[in-house]
Protein: IS5 family transposase
Amino acid sequence: MSQYDLTDPEWRVIEPLLPNKPRGVPRVDDRRVLNGIFWVLRSGAPWRDVPQRYGPYTTCYNRFRRWMIAGIWDSLMDVIASASHDRITMIDGTSIRVHHSAATLRADHPDRCLGRSRGGLTTKIHALTDGKGLPIKIAITLGHAHDLTAASELLDNLPSGAMLLADKAYDANWLRSKLRAERSWANIPPKSNRKEPIVFSPWLYKKRNLIERFFNKLKYYRRVATRYDKLGMTFLAMTKLACIRIVLRHNESTA
Structure:
């Protein structure tokens, strides 16, 4: 058993969430194929290098792509993240460098999702996590996009009474108004040019380091730490798979 493979407790959680196939030719063993997909995710290797113990690499790739298009990875992420009922949430973003093999699409391709920033071609991952630093929602944008670009999408349906922790980049009047309308609160340090006083707790703000730790764990997965995928939807699916694995491993270690 490889260190990247699903453990028995992880498999017991994820197996009931997989789609059924009551008719036709039975699918190749789901656990074996998923282990092959997670091997690519963790190692960052090309699909052609998938070890033989996981079966043909084409089976792993085709399963990953079919389930991505069908929204299976999105559903898994939503179900696993919905188990969190923490009232404290955190939002932030991190830039990911793009490998030259992922930058070959036309500049006007609708799903290129590449921007140019200080580090060259990059894609930015935006994350909303709970108070334990576990992911709730994920989005991607161009690498040079402002952190606020994906904030509206990530903060939709925030539970009433939630407390949002974020850095100064999120100190915007519209964001604070949105949270107040949803009966939530923002603990965001004010920018130096803000004139009206803002209530801010430095003590509570210290918990925000947990989302930085989440990004650190996310980049253990080499397929996320460097973007090798040409399409934005493929890179987003890989990122969500890494998030699923982070939550599963956390739940197993704290069970």
The mean pLDDT is 92.
